[in-house]
Specification:
The protein is of the alpha+beta class. It is built from 3 helices and 9 strands.
């Protein structure tokens, strides 16, 4: 990574599907000064930091955002540390949801998940975030 001074703002530019399967929980990808980042998973509610994407294969696999494919309640495209963590779900080749945890839960509750693995994985992820919220509340 070059020693560039980065802006505090990260532009949401696409998603990364590491497994290249659909449906799948995917990573929102951000751009800052020509470099690519994903959110650090250390806090599933707030963006604490952005992690640099250094793997060329991953960078080549970034799926650019296309408005016609996007289900995104907030329509916000610029993020900074401290903003709500984003969840992304690629339902099909032509449909990708991106939103906050609350928006993600609402979206998931309104669709049918036919894929057997995803029908178990999504409730697991939601449960883990709820545990994190509860643990944080009890501190």
């Amino acid at each position: 990574m070059e020693n560039k001074i980065l802006s505090l703002e990260y532009k949401l530019i696409g998603t990364l599907n590491k497994l290249d399967v659909v449906p799948e929980l995917v990573y929102p990808v951000f751009e800052n000064e020509g470099q690519y980042f994903i959110q650090s998973p250390s806090n599933p509610l707030k963006i604490e930091t952005f992690d640099f994407l250094f793997n060329d294969d991953m960078i080549k696999s970034i799926h650019p955002l296309r408005i016609e494919e996007l289900i995104m309640p907030t329509k916000k495209f610029v993020y900074t540390e401290g903003d709500d963590f984003l969840y992304a779900y690629q339902k099909s080749e032509k449909e990708i949801f991106i939103g906050t945890f609350h928006e993600f839960q609402k979206y998931i509750n309104g669709i049918e998940i036919e894929d057997e693995f995803m029908s178990k994985e999504i409730p697991f992820v939601i449960g883990e975030v709820k545990k994190f919220k509860l643990k944080k509340r009890n501190k």
